[in-house]
Hints:
CATH topology of the largest domain: Rossmann fold
Strand content: 25-35%
Shape: globular
Radius of gyration: 17 Å
CATH architecture of the largest domain: 3-Layer(aba) Sandwich
CATH superfamily of the largest domain: Formyl transferase, N-terminal domain
Number of helices: 6
Number of strands: 10
Bound molecules: 5-O-phosphono-beta-D-ribofuranosylamine
Number of domains: 2
Order of helices and strands: EHEHEHEHEHEEHEEE
Distance between the termini: 39 Å
Amino acid sequence: MKNIVILISGRGSNMEALIAARDAGDLPINIAAVISNRPEAEGLETAVRAGITAHFINHKGFAGRESFDAALAECIDQFSPDLVVLAGFMRILTEGFVRHYEGRLVNIHPSLLPSFSGLHTHQRALEEGVRIHGCTVHFVTPTLDHGPVIIQAAVPVLDGDTEATLAARVLQQEHKVYPQAVRWFVDGRLTLENGRVRLAADQADAAVMISPEIR
Ligand code: GRF
């Protein structure tokens, strides 16, 4: 069974989707730990309730990114993770940290990258008037919200959408694509080779999810 460590900063609904998939017998993983950089992250309580080891390392207690990332890596490495999953972890990571986990560090971002990297993705999608929006799971590189794409899900932007309705539509898809990406990784069907995603050929179709609202 592969060990995974999940990093969160807040609500933790993507973490919950991974726990639910594991509990349903759909995802053979050992969630070795959940770590938050914010002590008040709601997701920490959820993790504890699920019987998962939970830690917080408050970034405010560190002089800078390098020292925080070093402490974070030390905490993560105690659990010997095969994969480190960023699930709403709201910190920019140093290049050294990212390199240390090369090929075993993934992130989910609420847009169809490379559009709308950074914050407020749903609001910006509405302002731009795009017709299709979505989410992306990718391997992490030192550039923020950038890196080889593993899976994307597309949703329509509908007349009358608000930031909240659009975010909810995207989040529903996030909860599908993240367990899928982790499943591929732990099954050995997904690797990072020379900076490119390598996915088992019979799974390629599943790397594009289209929500049912798109006709
Ligand atoms: C998600 O929209 C994720 O894509 C982004 O941050 C949000 C985290 O939500 N990176 P949650 O904490 O998983 O509920």
